[in-house]
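P.,

For your records, the input lines for the assembly:
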Amino acid sequence: MSALPIDPAARPEAGTTAPQPPAAAADATGAAGWRGFVADWSSDRQAFQVSWGKAMMWIFLLSDTFIFGSFLTGYMTVRMSTTVPWPNPSEVFALHVGATNVPLLLIAIMTFVLITSSGTMAMAVNCAYSRDKRNAARLMVITAAFGALFVGMQAFEWTKLIADGVRPWGNPWGAAQFGSSFFMITGFHGLHVSGGVVLLLLFARKLVRGDYDRKANYQIVEVVGLYWHFVDLVWVFIFAFFYLW
Amino acid sequence: MEAVHTPTPTTNSTQAPATADQGHQKHPIGLYLKIWLLLFVLSAFSYMVDYFQLQGLLRWSLIIIFMMLKAGLIVAIFMHMAWERMALICAILLPPLVLLVLVGLMASEGGYTHLMRVIFYR
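Structure tokens returned:
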């Protein structure tokens, strides 16, 4: 048990009753840009002037960046080293609409769905900071619904490709590595979206239930939002490198 | 480990005027809507690159430009990086740059493997 009653001045989020700091220290935190950088890292004190929840979410996202970065680099390597032509994603992911084949249609719709969900998430964060927790929770649920829609479309895409004969070890159109890269990268991203949906619903419920009312601090919405925007961010890179390249 | 909270006198937003925004990332809703619209437009542009089957250098450069613009907008505005302090910005945005070293190494390795396959296994 480490939840000792601590000095409120040590907690960034509970700041109303904090005593006045020494003038010099206030100057140091006040400085922006590079002066602020030096001030934040010197003198053996808290380096990041944000709540621990936000700092840890950013550090988690940094580690996740390396996971997806490594996946995309691995994909680049196998695509560069194969002597068999790479299947054309524009044709592989085309959808029949009426009589014509529209290239990448499903992927384009998925992209728009994910961006829309990012927009609603940003609105949820905005509501949370206006202390409007009802609408914040409502927008989080809407965001989760868009996320679920995205995962559903991805499941449809996978089903279609598997029916077409794409396997991690081969496919009818060309380089065998296409399947393994595709399933690995989009699968891992889809897993992240699914996790995000669960996270959003969980914290929307906690918000409505009043878990954060005692301190009236709804920053958790922004922290969950960081994760969600990151999932959208990763899709931007997957869309560019896997589907468009 | 027992929590030893040294009462840092400098933590809070209420005291230093310049950091009054820290921890209260409240921005006008109009800004979010504009960025949202911009992301839609940029996505539509990158889709158009494929739809009109642009090829060659034009295709790669357009894909990369739209990708970087979208990523930048998401990180800066939606994830509020533009309003964070330099210490956090550097801690999060600089480390991924080492991935470029990995990309460089693997590009050279991939090219070499390709060459070997062309020579010996074609």
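Two observations worth noting. The radius of gyration of chain A is 23 Å. Residues 1-26 of chain A have pLDDT under 50 and may be disordered.

Regards
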